[in-house]
Specification:
The chain has a domain at 1-26. The longest helix has 4 residues, at 28-31. It is built from 1 helix and 2 strands. The chain is mainly beta and 40 residues long. A two-stranded antiparallel ribbon has the order 1-2. It has one helix at 28-31; strands at residues 8-14, 17-22. Strand 1 (8-14) and strand 2 form a beta hairpin.
């Protein structure tokens, strides 16, 4: 399954950076495939 922005949660903002948490039911092999996460 491709990246879903609705599964991305912002945890904190600091010094111009954003710390996020991403939760998925996909297996690790699917997650690390090229193109799973695409820069918007």
């Amino acid at each position: 399954m491709p990246f879903k922005s609705s599964d991305l949660t912002v945890l904190a903002y600091a010094n111009g950076y954003t710390l996020c948490h991403y939760l998925t039911d996909d297996q690790a092999g699917e997650f690390i495939k090229s193109g799973y996460l695409k820069h918007a």
